[in-house]
Amino acid sequence: MKEIDKFNKKFITQALGLFAVGSWKVSVRPVQLTPGSMVLSLQREVFSLGDLVKQEAIDMSIAIKEIERILSIVYSPDKINYLALMMIDPIVHFHVIPRYSKSVDISSVSYHDSFWPKPVDLLKQNQSMPSPETVANDLRNYISS
């Protein structure tokens, strides 16, 4: 199985997909570290940022602007962290982690960024986060056509 197929299966990018820009796909992260956590992934097998072609770099910028626009409307994070580790999942991708200095309310439930102001722990699952399906539904209402 190709790495891109393994990645898309692991991160459920089909079901949790929000939008695409060129070769980039934006999807809700299956494990929410903070409300609105996403994955920005290149949909071809590239293993180094330096191997992006010019159009992919341009499209990445467009995707990031849309991510930030949507998150600012829906959840109003104080900061947005982008993590490109590519250690376990080697294809070029970013974990998009909205950060909150105060609690955020989603569907009448209050969520707290327990990592603030420190870096997030990608391996620590916070059981009190909203489901990825809830987040996907919230965000899909604000995607530009």
Reported by name, the CATH topology is HIT family, subunit A
Q: What string, H for helix and E for strand, traces the elements in order?
A: HEEEHEEEEH
- Number of H/I helices: 3
- What is the gyration radius calculated from CA atoms? 15 Å
* Percent of residues in β-strands: 15-25%
Termini Cα gap? 33 Å
Low-confidence segments, given as residue ranges, are: none
- Name the strands of the widest sheet in spatial order: 1-2-3-5-4
Structure commentary:
With 145 residues, this protein is an alpha+beta fold. The chain has a single domain, classed as HIT-like (HIT family, subunit A, 2-Layer Sandwich). It contains three helices and seven strands, in the order H-E-E-E-H-E-E-E-E-H. Strands 1-2-3-5-4 form a five-stranded antiparallel β-sheet. A two-stranded antiparallel ribbon has the order 6-7. The longest helix is centred in the middle third of the chain and has 21 residues, at 54-74. It is globular. The mean pLDDT is 94. This is HIT family protein. InterPro entries: HIT-like_sf (IPR036265).
Descriptive labels:
two-stranded antiparallel sheet; 5-stranded antiparallel β-sheet; 145 residues; 3 helices
Short description:
This protein is of the alpha+beta class. Helix content is 26%, strand content 23%. It has a single domain (3-140), classed as HIT-like (HIT family, subunit A, 2-Layer Sandwich), CATH 3.30.428.10.
